[in-house]
Amino acid sequence: MRRTGLIAAVLLSALGFAATAQAEKEIDGNLIVSFDGGISPHALPRTGVAPVSVTVDSSFATTDESDPPPQLRQIAIGINKDGKIYDRGLPTCQVRRIQPSTIAAARRICGGAIVGSGHVQVRVALANQSPFTFKGPMLVFHAARAGGHRRLLAQVYGSKPPSAFVLTFKVVRKEGTFGTLIKTSLPKPARQWAYVTHFDMKLRRVYTYEGQKHSFISAGCAAPAGFPGAVYPFARANFGFAGGKQVATTLVRDCKVR
Amino acid sequence: MGSSATMSSLPRFFLAAFAALLVVVPAALAAEEGEGGIARPEYISRVDPICSKNATANARILKGVKQQVQRGDLVPAGKRFIRASSVFGRTTAKIAAFPQPASDGPKLTKWIGYLKKEKTFLRKIGKLLKSNKKNPAYKEAVRLKSNNSKANGAIVGFGFHHCSIDQSKFL
């Protein structure tokens, strides 16, 4: 059995102490960045791993309500290395198959490759038009590797106005605490008009391959022996904005041994 | 601590506390009273270096403590937490005595309130470790983690470079 990359993860979010988890907020100049997320379930095995869902949630605003806000151009989210991504036998999807399409159509075409979902909110500023907000649901698909890296396709569809686009996330393994880096950049054409103000993503997929159940993401609760849980760094986000501004923030979460 | 966890596992439960100490505790504050209050940039310029300096000081106190917990040497680890807590308490008191910008008073008072709680959490964790009470120690560590986030939230946007608690560096 091939084990694919390590991803992050001992996290919690559901019960007990989950209520204490809170978003981290950073303010840089007039820019406000909020970052939240976690792993569910809260209770995980001390040794080995169990299927989990990983959630990240980011919002971008300004202190002076400038419109449009600073343009988000790069997202890089490092997830704790104590976790695993397994994608052997998981179907893949290609951009050309789901772009353009509605969410329902994309689900129909590449349903087997879905590994998550979420939402995106974008402030759209076009020449000779008043800015408006685009909101849309997002589906996340497993894609074939490129350049040795796993990839995820985030397909977004909005009905007002009708539009669809796909963001390609590269999943990179690296050294350090946050051993799995999920990153993407705003496509160059979109830099003319797209100002992301919110996105959230939940990754979870359990599937059967060769008669065995697998989880796209798994994690454990690496608490020392005798301790009922652990506090650990869950994720670190780096957001790059037009003009070169970088904002980084880290989430610390806890888990319980089940 | 004879952990049955994976090789990469660490005794993370206490490290939130560790991080807090490394980052926040100021050592000596030469508080100079300004008659008409103090401007925020000046406040930051005075407090920030102290946070930075004391991060180093507390790193020394807690050096190796996570390995102690990992090995199960909880009593000496607990003592270190208690000692660190004392230092934290003294320095928090000094911060509290420092003149604050009038307009930031409520926020800074809130922040200092969290720092005081931090001291209490650290002491509790230390005592619980000394008593080999792992479950309660973990619970206090979780509360400490939450308190750290609140402390950071209280000063978000102030422009401190060294007074925010970045627990992830030490977990």
Describe this structure in words.
- The complex is a heterodimer of chains A (258) and B (171).
- Helix content of chain A is 5%, strand content 55%.
- Chain A is mainly beta.
- Chain A has one domain (6-257).
- In chain A, the strands form three sheets. Chain A has a 13-stranded mixed sheet. Chain A has a four-stranded antiparallel sheet with strand order 1-8-17-5, with no helix packed on it. In chain A, strands 15-16 form a two-stranded antiparallel sheet.
- In chain A, a hairpin with a 2-residue loop joins strand 15 and strand 16.
- Chain B is mostly helical.
- Chain B has one domain (12-154).
- Chain B contains six helices and no strands.
- In chain B, helix 1 crosses helix 2 and helix 1 runs parallel beside helix 4.
- Mean pLDDT of chain B is 76; it is low at 1-35.
- The A-B interface holds A 17, 20-22, 24-27, 32, 46-47, 63, 81-82, 177, 220, 222-233, 236, 250, 252-254 and B 1-6, 8-16, 69-70, 72, 134-135, 137-138, 141-143, 145-146, 148-150, 152-153, 156-157, 166-168, 171.
Structure summary:
By secondary structure, chain A is mainly beta. Chain A has helices spanning 95-98, 103-110, and strands at 6-7, 24-28, 31-40, 43-44, 50-51, 53-62, 72-79, 83-85, 114-124, 132-146, 149-159, 162-173, 180-185, 194-203, 206-209, 212-215, 217-219, 229-241, 246-257.
Number of helices of chain B: 6
**Can you write the helix and strand succession of chain A as a string?**
EEEEEEEEHHEEEEEEEEEEE
Instruction: Tell me, briefly, the overall form of chain A.
Output: globular
The amount of helix of chain A comes to under 10%
Q: Please report the distance between the alpha carbons of the first and last residues of chain B.
A: 16 Å
Alpha-beta content class of chain B: mainly alpha
Biggest sheet overview of chain A: 13 strands, mixed
